[in-house]
Amino acid sequence: MLLSIPILVIAVIAYNVFVFVGTTPLEAELFSMTMVSGGYWAFTLSDLLICVSLLFLFVEILKATRTGAGSIVDHLLSTFLFIICLIEFLLVRQAATSTFFIIMVICLIDVIAGYSVTIRSARRDLSVGHQSGPF
């Protein structure tokens, strides 16, 4: 059951902690570099949160390839997490940011990918079990 909990919930909780409890703003610069082109690149806490969320999405897509009763619970919890993010984005002022919007879209991609992978693998399993011919 614990494996069914979407790991993306960590990113959503981290965002909420930084916004509601944290003293460091999401725009805080973690490090910066002067590029060979002469451009200036700054990596912020917000950028780190998005990158970690993308890594979590990769793990979630790998989890979606599992089969069994636990995968249904996993998809339902991922859908529930997306709905919570959508409600928070629409109703909570601190969540009305591009960073949270991107995290919400990552949650949506997790939902779509999870169902797509499951349907695709179920279709493949069905075609393997189907026999054609007279016998």
* Helical segment count: 4
Overall helicity: 55-70%
Helix vs. strand class: mainly alpha
* Mean residue pLDDT: 87
Order of SSEs: HEEHHH
General shape: globular
Strand content: 5-15%
Question: In angstroms, what is the radius of gyration?
Answer: 19 Å
What can be said about the biggest beta sheet?
A: 2 strands, antiparallel
Please give the order of strands in the largest beta sheet: 1-2
- Report the count of strand segments: 2
Count of distinct structural domains: 1
Q: Uncertain spans, ≥5 residues at pLDDT below 50?
A: none
SSE layout:
Blueprint (H helix, E strand, L loop, with lengths): L7 H14 L7 E6 L5 E5 H20 L4 H23 L6 H32 L6
Compact overview of the structure:
66% of the residues lie in helices and 8% in strands. The chain has 135 residues and is mainly alpha-helical.
Keywords, separated by commas or semicolons:
mainly alpha; about 140 residues; two-stranded antiparallel ribbon
Plain-language structure description:
This protein is mainly α and 135 residues long. It has helices spanning 8-21, 45-64, 69-91, 98-129; strands at residues 29-34, 40-44. Strands 1-2 form a two-stranded antiparallel ribbon. Helix 1 packs antiparallel against helix 4, helix 2 (45-64) packs parallel to helix 4 and helix 3 runs antiparallel to helix 4. The chain is globular, with a radius of gyration of 19 Å. 21% of the residues are buried.
